[in-house]
Automatic annotation (TrEMBL):
This is Phosphatidylinositol N-acetylglucosaminyltransferase subunit P. Belongs to the PIGP family. Part of the complex catalyzing the transfer of N-acetylglucosamine from UDP-N-acetylglucosamine to phosphatidylinositol, the first step of GPI biosynthesis. The keyword Iron-sulfur does not apply. Its main location: membrane. Keywords: Glycosyltransferase, GPI-anchor biosynthesis, Membrane, Transferase, Transmembrane, Transmembrane helix. Residues 12-124 form the PIG-P domain.
Length: 128
């Protein structure tokens, strides 16, 4: 089975073009529904359409939901994060302990987490 690639393929181009045209047709139908008087639509034989108030209510509701998603996302982030008094903030199952091996001075040491005592020493204890 071939590896999936994000590069364009003919199938994706066809689907994309179809969705592009569908979006324009649906937007045109929305504009017809929102702006053309009901009497004209009834003369064309188009009898069932939702009430005109939904032409304003649905986009307003969509914008409101989009804006409220930011608050919801921040709230869920705060609910799922441990409190500041928790030991999980200092050390958890993903902590990488620094190795005791010595490395040459010009090399970059491997990635590791600093202990809270080392962080406090570096931040708050200064040689005067």
């Amino acid at each position: 089975m071939p590896e999936h690639s994000p590069s364009p393929t003919p199938e994706r181009a066809i689907y994309g073009f179809f969705l592009y045209l569908l979006a324009f047709v649906l937007f045109f139908l929305y504009l017809v529904w929102a702006w053309v008087p009901d009497a004209w639509l009834h003369q064309l034989g188009l009898d069932y359409w939702p009430q005109k108030q939904w032409a304003v209510a649905l986009p307003t509701f969509a914008c409101f939901c989009f804006l409220m998603s930011y608050s919801l996302y921040f709230g869920l982030t705060f609910l799922n994060s441990p409190p500041l008094t928790s030991r999980e903030i200092i050390k958890d199952s993903h902590t990488i302990v620094p190795s005791d091996r010595s490395f040459p001075p010009e090399s970059i040491p491997p990635l590791a987490d600093l202990s809270i005592t080392e962080v406090n020493k570096r931040l708050y204890l200064h040689d005067s």
